[in-house]
Write a structure and sequence with these properties.
Chain A: Residues 29-402 form the Aminotransferase class I/classII large domain. The complex is a heterodimer of chains A (410) and B (428). Chain A is of the alpha/beta class. Chain A is built from 16 helices and 13 strands. Chain A has a seven-stranded mixed sheet, with helices on both faces. Chain A is globular and about 60 Å long. Chain B has 428 residues and is an alpha/beta fold. In chain B, 46% of the residues lie in helices and 13% in strands. Chain B is built from 17 helices and 13 strands. Chain B has helices at residues 7-16, 43-51, 76-88, 101-112, 117-121, 131-146, 163-169, 189-196, 221-233, 252-255, 257-264, 296-314, 320-330, 332-363, 370-374, 386-396, 416-427, and strands at 58-59, 124-130, 152-157, 173-178, 180-181, 186-187, 204-208, 237-242, 270-274, 286-292, 379-381, 398-399, 405-407. Chain B has a seven-stranded mixed sheet. In chain B, β7 (204-208), α9 and β8 form a beta-alpha-beta unit. The longest helix of chain B is centred in the C-terminal third of the chain and has 32 residues, at 332-363. The chains are: A alpha/beta (410), B alpha/beta (428). Chains A and B meet through α2, α5, α6, α11 and α12 of A and α3, α6, α7 and α12 of B.
């Protein structure tokens, strides 16, 4: 009798199953609007020109080796990454109270942060601290905090399906009612999956309540640069909270804005009250990292570090990011125009009001099923589409498909 | 429970920030109660070494190979593979959660042998992991969640320092079986068998496949056979840690002998592999985790659960190192070159062992240093006591872990004489 006879078959991770199904589909006009990876107008993955350049430099540099990085990662990567989030002139950085933990992508940064909070926040090993994630949120948020040991993961109001926008009242109400010291996972910009971000005024209201209610701020920043095309603009919320003197975490991903998806480049930025607290925090972060992956992978961090720390490369990178953001913005405009031209029932303003890689179309599960089965347009059951999957070549087909879904399927 | 209400925390805050007389929520930190973590015993050695200004200093701490000039060694096969890969202009799309398919296949073949029945029947699941540590952790998490039989993991005494916290953080409990005999600086075979024969059924037993870390003491094949028998009798779940395949004897297949023997004997093992040392890919974090299952159906169920474990840790693994490893393993001339280079690394270490012993004799040491030659792999358990280690560090700037372990790779023909003198000085 096998020891593992009772191991149940787990359901596949939805977003990857979608891609797998898409791959098996032989329909000539199939489109994948599922997983969040950038595509060019030819629907191809895009290795950023600056990345190609830097990778060549790395391969040709015989002085580089493959030795272990320190546990917390490549130092010049960590500081440059935190600077990108907080700004060159960040007072917190000047005060020497900002530290970074290089991690395996944004996921890794979230997980290390979650493990730290479970061990050291709100007591010692307090697994009952409520963790609030937006409704809806990136589906892996739940898993990250649950596997880190937290027992009480709750939704906070976020998406208002009726008005297809932010449910600010619900959100603020949840903040007021949350037990003190609860952790709130906030999307820094380009909310996944809704593409709906609070305005600056709304962020200020959120911050005010969080400070008063002593709630912990954990930013997830996976799309800096991708939302508006401007790094500083996309980091406004993070910097505002820092200026309001919050101690906070920011889980940063460089998967999208550097197109380095498979090299797993992330950074957990820690903003502490002072350097003394920061030192102790980082020492405990090391212990967590050591039993998870010992030290992080070097390739991706080297690429990002070289780019961020060299003015010309940094400028080139910003240009590449703007290229991606601009194409997405263009596709948003186009999709809205085409749906309006088709006379598709409903309002489609949310397509251009939403920001970042994703759009919450508002399509219901039946309509989504129609899109996949009948039109071979693959999107998430939630109605989320990856705008990067749209191209000038397929946008008419997609607009038509949405039109049919909305008019034929209720 | 609010942070500031704990009395323990308040006294802690008092010690850390004496100026905080009155605790004001507005001005105090969330993290006042966070204790300073101790430096990692192994990686901390390198950090101390770096701070030392003595030109004769030696770092015999962490197990990273060095050439005879004391420099990190990037294998030629790695450089060649990198050039091949660069020319291909591949994209950077996410790998599957379980990693690069070509890598996991080659990884399993390397460990089990290309003709292994396990591979042809498809009853293994092998996933790409973040080197050996990541592999052990995934394995530990899997056991914690699915191994109902026992929460106990038995480690050899001693074992790699990081094994204990890895399994503990995953929720397992640690126990030990005798392994190293300090009186002989060799394998305590009788003690191991006695202890293993008492381990409760269904417990997990961790075995170092070859080049035991930290002692360098490996069972002989006849001894492995007896261990396999008794492990089978006790119905224990075997978890092999193979971080040094190729590094022990210089021969890939020879070093995997125990793993393959156990599988042949019917143990459905768990296996962690690392390519940090044998390919010198330390910082690229290349590893594999394998579960040998009853059949292919079970392997699919296990695979699905491994993905569920992996996704909330890091989503999917890094590409670069896995690509390099795969290219080497699957390109015939690179694979041959690699086998030569691994052999070369192992040989240099064997030579250093011999030279160290010769140097100790020359210095006038009357102790028996045969174990330095008998032990195998990157490490040597010198038999030095903590006080002697401390002296060696303070007086000679020779850095090593407190347990007397030295990394042979850190020794070169240029400094082996100095080391011999130092060891003699603290042991005479």
């Amino acid at each position: 009798m096998s020891l593992f006879a009772d191991v149940p078959q787990a359901p596949p991770v939805a977003v990857f199953k979608l891609t797998a199904d898409f791959r098996e589909d032989s329909h000539p006009q199939k489109v994948n609007l599922g997983v969040g990876a950038y595509r060019t107008d030819d629907c191809l993955p895009w290795v950023l020109p600056v990345v190609k350049k830097v990778e060549r430099l790395i391969v040709e540099d015989n002085s580089l080796n493959h030795e272990y990085l320190p546990i917390l990662g490549l130092p010049e990567f960590r500081s440059a990454a935190s600077k990108v989030a907080l700004g060159d002139d960040s007072p917190a950085i000047k005060d020497n109270r900002v530290g970074g933990v290089q991690a395996l992508g944004g996921t890794g940064a979230l997980r290390i942060g979650a493990e730290f909070l479970r061990r050291w926040y709100n007591g010692v090993n307090n697994t009952s601290t409520p963790i609030y994630v937006s409704a809806p949120t990136w589906e892996n948020h739940n898993g990250v905090f649950a596997d880190a040991g937290f027992k009480d993961i709750r939704p906070y109001h976020y998406w208002d399906a009726a008005k297809r926008g932010l449910d600010l009242t619900g959100l603020l109400d949840d903040l007021e009612k949350a037990p003190e010291h609860s952790v709130f996972v906030l999307h820094a910009c380009a909310h996944n999956p809704t593409g709906t971000d609070p305005t600056q005024e709304e962020w200020k209201k959120i911050a005010e309540i969080m400070k008063r209610r002593k709630l912990f701020v954990f930013f997830d920043s996976a799309y800096q640069g991708f939302a508006s095309g401007n790094l500083d603009k996309d980091a406004w919320a993070i910097r505002y909270f820092v200026s309001e003197e919050f101690e906070l975490f920011v889980a940063q991903s460089f998967s999208k804005n550097f197109g380095l998806y498979n090299e797993r480049v992330g950074n957990l930025t820690v903003v502490a009250k002072d350097n003394e607290n920061l030192t102790r925090i980082l020492s405990q972060m090391e212990k967590i990292v050591r039993t998870t992956w010992s030290n992080p992978p070097s390739q991706g961090a080297r690429v990002v570090s070289k780019t961020l720390n060299c003015p010309e490369l940094f400028a080139e990178w910003k240009g590449n990011v703007k290229t991606m953001a601009d194409r997405v913005l263009f596709m948003r405009d186009e999709l809205k125009s085409k749906l309006q031209a088709l006379g598709t029932p409903g309002t489609w303003d949310h397509i251009t009001q939403q920001i970042g890689m994703f759009s919450f179309t508002g399509l219901n599960p039946k309509q989504v099923e129609f899109m996949i089965k009948e039109k071979h347009v693959y999107l998430m059951a939630s109605g989320r589409i990856n705008m990067c999957g749209l191209t000038t070549k397929n946008i008419d087909y997609i607009a038509q498909a949405i039109h049919e879904a909305v008019t034929k399927v209720q | 429970m609010a942070l500031l209400k704990s009395n323990k925390v308040i006294s802690c805050l008092g010690n850390i920030s004496p100026s905080l007389g009155v605790l004001s929520t507005r001005n105090s930190s969330w993290w006042g109660g966070v204790q300073m973590g101790p430096p990692d015993p192994i990686l901390g050695v390198t950090e101390a070494f770096k701070r030392d200004t003595n030109p004769k200093k030696m770092n015999l701490g962490v197990g990273a190979y060095r050439d005879d000039k004391g420099k990190p060694f990037v294998l030629s096969c790695v450089r060649k593979a990198e050039a091949l890969i660069a020319a291909k202009q591949l994209d950077k799309e996410y790998l599957p959660i379980g990693g690069l398919g070509d890598f996991t296949k080659a990884c399993a073949q390397l460990a089990l042998g290309a003709n292994n029945e396990v591979l042809s029947s498809g009853r293994n699941i092998t996933v790409q992991t973040i080197s050996g540590t990541g592999s052990l952790r995934i394995g530990a998490n899997f056991l914690s969640r699915f191994h109902g039989g026992s929460r106990d993991v038995y480690l050899p005494k001693p074992s790699w320092g990081n094994h204990t916290p890895i399994f503990r953080d995953a929720g397992m409990q640690l126990k030990a079986y005798r392994y190293y005999d300090p009186s002989t600086c060799g394998f305590d075979f009788r003690g191991a068998l006695e202890d293993i024969s008492k381990i409760p059924e269904q417990s997990v037993i961790l075995l170092h496949a070859c080049a035991h870390n930290p002692t360098g003491v490996d069972p002989k094949q006849e001894q492995w056979k007896e261990i396999s028998d008794i492990v089978k009798k006790r119905n224990l779940l075997v978890f092999f840690d193979m971080a040094y395949q190729g590094f022990a004897s210089g021969d890939i297949d020879r070093d995997a002998w125990a793993v393959r023997y156990f599988i042949e004997q019917g143990h459905n093992i768990l296996l962690s592999q690392s390519f940090a040392k044998n390919m010198g890919l330390y910082g690229e974090r290349v590893g594999g985790f394998t579960v040998v299952c009853k059949d292919i159906e079970e392997s699919k169920r296990v695979e699905s659960q491994l993905k569920i474990l992996i996704r909330p840790i890091y989503s999917n693994p890094p590409m670069n190192g896995a690509r390099i490893a795969t290219t080497i393993l699957n390109t015939p001339e690179l694979r041959l070159l690699w086998l030569e280079e691994v052999h070369g690394m192992a040989n240099r270490i064997i030579k250093m062992r011999e030279q160290l012993v010769a140097g100790l004799k020359k210095s006038g040491s009357s102790h028996n240093w045969q174990h330095v030659i008998d032990q195998i792999g990157m490490f040597c358990f010198t038999g030095l006591k903590p006080e002697q280690v401390e002296r060696l560090t303070k007086e000679f700037s020779v850095y090593m872990t407190k347990d007397g372990r030295i990394s042979m790779a850190g020794i070169s023909s240029g400094n082996v004489g100095y080391l011999a003198e130092g060891i003699h000085a603290v042991t005479k």
